[in-house]
Design brief:
By secondary structure, this protein is α/β, with parallel strands linked by helices. It is built from 5 helices and 6 strands; from the N terminus they run βαβαβαβαββα.
Length: 141
């Protein structure tokens, strides 16, 4: 059985709510998982997990949060090659370009996306929460 790290940054609580739904999915599949803020995670901890869910909202000009999340993710990138990863996040404007850029970045790192990323505008609604739970189940396989 896999051990999954659900790592996120949230400014308004939307991405935190999304992270909880992913965690619920992982745990419903019987897998072990930890819910961690990006300040609690590092490349040194990556070896403890077989799969990862990373959540970050769009910030500024549709980029990852630059103060904590992007530096943490940059540090971890080399540890993620060949590992199963799921991406998620919320946005309040734009069209999701930050997620497309993040997917491309992961692909160039050799990251294996376990499923398509899930994004939502503002707070996640029930259909988004269900998609996140399903992604958590998939990630735990």
């Amino acid at each position: 059985m896999s051990k999954v790290a659900v790592v996120y940054w949230s400014g308004t609580g939307n991405t935190e709510q999304m992270a909880q739904a992913v965690l619920d999915g992982v745990k419903s599949a019987g897998a072990d998982a930890d819910l961690l803020t990006c300040s609690e995670f590092s490349s040194a901890k990556a070896a403890d997990y077989s799969a990862f869910a990373f959540g970050c909202p769009a910030m500024g000009d549709e980029v990852l949060e630059e103060g904590e999340f992007d530096p943490m993710f940059t540090e971890c990138e080399s540890s993620l090659s060949g590992k199963k990863v799921f991406l998620f996040g919320s946005y309040g404007w734009g069209d999701g370009a930050w997620m497309e850029n993040w997917k491309e970045r992961c692909a160039s790192d050799g990251v294996v996306l376990a499923s398509d990323p899930v994004i939502c505008m503002n707070a996640p609604e029930d259909d988004t929460l269900e998609a996140l739970k399903a992604a958590g189940i998939e990630l735990s396989k």
